[in-house]
Amino acid sequence: MQIRYFLALSLLPNLVLAQESPEIEEAQLQCAVQAPVSPSINDRDSISNISAEDIVIISDRSEAAMGDKAQFSGNVSFSQGSRHISADEAILDQKNEQLDANGNLIFSDEQFTVTADSLNAQMLTNSATLTGAKYWLNGQQINGDAQQLKITEQNNLELSNTNFTTCPPGDNSWRLEAKEIRIDSSEEWGEIWDAKLRIADVPIMYIPYMTIPVSDKRKSGFLFPGFSTSTTNGVEVSVPYYWNIAPEYDLTFTPTYMSARGFYSKTEFRYLAGEQQDGQFNFEFLANDDKLDNSPDRYLYHWRHQGAINENWRVQANFTDVSDNNYFNDLSSDVNRSTDNQLSRIGEISYFERDWNLGMRVQDIKVLGEEESPYQVMPQLNFNYQTNDFWNGLDFKFNSELTNFQHKENDYATATRFHMEPSISWPIQGPAGSVTSEVKLLQTQYWQDNNNSNDELDDTVNRTIPQVRIHGQINFERQLAMLGSNYKQTLEPQFQYLYVGYEDQSNIGVYDTAQLQEDYFGLFRDRRFSGLDRIADTNQMTLGLTTRLFDEANVEKFKFSIGQIVFIEDSKINSYNDIEADASTSVLAAEIDANMYQDWFISGAVQFDTEKGENKKSEVTLDFRPSNDKLLQFSYRYVPDLLNTNTNDRVNISQIGMRTSWPISDDLYFVGNFYYDLNESRNIETYTGVQYESCCWAVRLSYHYRIKTNYDDDLNPSLDSREEFESGVYLNFIIKGLGGSGPLGVEDMLDDGLFNYRKPLYLRN
To answer: What is the distance between the terminal CA atoms of the chain, rounded to a whole angstrom?
Structure first.
């Protein structure tokens, strides 16, 4: 975007005179600052041969002498293209190429609007001076006053004894007063000298020199500082510096002082690699952590890259490493949250065509707090092919991979796995329902090296397993009158028959396999485990039912699903240790989403063991949403027999929670979270925040109290010496248009905690 500040009234031979007086529209000041409207030529078609370079002058009265002065009075309007001047009277000196105007003077172009007591324009040098000026940057809330405003020959703007703000006229929430402001039209930045920042008309800061943006163009400089205090880090003060290295590169350096720990620095380097690739580097470092006994150095490295090389090739890379397991628990990193306990290291390149794709990937995952490390994928090659309706309505798929598994420890087995999975399916679909029949052949070859491990694994394993799957669904619907309203009810029973052959897999190591969740949609999977090291044999039938209610506007108001697997034969592979299963049915899984009454919504899920009569997992949320900015949510979740990674004990999770976001007034918001552990009888998280936001500034004050996830590590091996809970007070302040960017946002307050806000599943429209 280019900013231009000039009048361009030097084309004197092209003057066109007219006797019209268009009306000036009255500007209404709202939250968004609006500038006065300058009159323009509304009926240009009535005047022939007018181009964008021609100058049109309209007034009630005029007196002109060729080659001398021309005087205009009464609703005077000068127009040239998108530039307009209106005044009560004006004098055009054609000999000296000078224009003087005064009285209700308004100047405007595409970039800004100015009202002034008088204007003097030198058309030979393409410059102008306005006195007693008020100005508005169009499309932005920036506005202010100036004793003198000058448009230079280089199209720059110079203001003397001036001020600016983003608040509407008459609102003195904040204002920056300066002896001089210069705005460079080519650089699109403003320089300010000898400035005072006033809040509520009280001077609070003197600034000898600063720069501000007048567009979205980047420039190096200090950003607004941050301040907080907590029991973990003490008083924390940060002063970020932004370095605009080049159009394709920038860097943000954030030095931070923590009274409890010491000096902490964060560096983020971003780059663009062509038009379709981007990435960033992060380096964070804390020298001699004073909070820990042995004062260790703590650090983080992070690199991310992604994008397209061309229309077929895609690349992705992600690498993160930290000095210790508790890095994210203790320090406010820009890369991960405190609840993240896995660091993913992935490098991938892929090639895509319409019917097939291939790729190569390397992967390493670091699990914080775990003594055992997962296997590394070094590397994995995959090839996938798919074609629909290749013969008489049949679809064909072929998936394959070649994976090499390595481990950082020498006493673990390593392996190479080659897997092929051809399948043929026959989909039949119609309005009344659908049936899909599928046949697969799962062919896997392993080459394993036991190294020094105690696992008795075969050096080579060849595994061939057939699979047959038939999935069908029927759609019923009827009209239903209930509670004085008319609804359309659907009934969608579905079934799935799945047969997977058995083969002994005790001689195969577990490299990338984990058990999948048994929710309602998981009942209709064709696998019980992720990965390929364990393929559970089964002969089973899954039965499920979904019913929905739609109102007269075809908006879904209610959805309920329930289903269960019936095992026709016992599975011989039920876990990593190949223990034979003796259950005749799976858990009974049910889910509900409903708009119960007006603004009340309920969402819940349960997994119930019908044979043992035990609740395996349940969660429910109750939401009250009278409008988009009002929320009251109650929640409960129960998860039994969960592994505590700190103590290796099995625990039951039973927690209740409440979350709210509510406007106290048009400008004032309250956000609060509260979560309580019923088993431990203790509060695990409390968050309270109040945010005030006006058109031109915003402030947030919040308090956070939460349990910490502490891991054993070499830096501080004793968990007894670490704090179990953390509390802190945080203050955020933004002056919009002075380094701040937009509203703080209530949504991020809802997500600022251990438990992110989860909206209920949206019902379909």
So the answer is: 41
pLDDT in tens, 237-272: 999 999 999 989 999 999 999 999 999 999 999 999
Which residues share a beta bridge with 133?
Answer: 146
Cα 60 to Cα 57: distance, rounded to the nearest angstrom: 10
DSSP helix/strand/coil, 521:
helix
CA quadruple 498, 500, 506, 508: dihedral positive or negative? negative
On the question of a cis peptide bond just before residue 379, with omega within 30 degrees of 0, the verdict is yes
Measured CA to CA, the distance from residue 761 to residue 556 in angstroms comes to 12
CA distance 652 to 648: 13
Side-chain half-sphere exposure of 372, counting CA atoms within 13 A:
7
What's the gap between Cα 169 and its chain centre? 34
Distance (Å, rounded) from C-alpha 560 to C-alpha 552? 19
Kindly report, residue by residue over 421-452, the tens digit of the pLDDT.
999 999 999 989 999 999 999 999 999 998 87
Domain limits of the chain? 12-217, 614-765
Mean pLDDT of the chain: 83
Q: Fill in the amino acid letter for 449.
A: D
Give residue for tokens 């405007």: 108
Question: Across-strand partners of 417?
Answer: 403, 446
Residue (of 397, 497, 412) closest to 455 by Cα position: 412
Burial class (CB in 10 A: 0-12, 13-18, 19+), 137: buried
Cα 577 to its chain centre, rounded Å, is 41
Could you report the per-residue pLDDT of 74-121, keeping only the tens digit for each?
888 888 777 788 999 988 888 888 888 888 899 887 777 889 999 888
Give CA–CA dist 660/633, Å, rounded.
Answer: 6
Q: 546: Cβ–Cβ under 8 A, 6 or more apart, which residues?
A: 490, 491, 492, 494, 559, 560, 561
User: At residue 119, what is the residue type?
Assistant: L
The string of pLDDT tens digits covering residues 740-750 is 544 455 666 56
For the segment(s) 12-217, the CATH number from 3.40.50.2300, 2.60.450.10, 3.40.630.10, 1.20.1050.10 is: 2.60.450.10
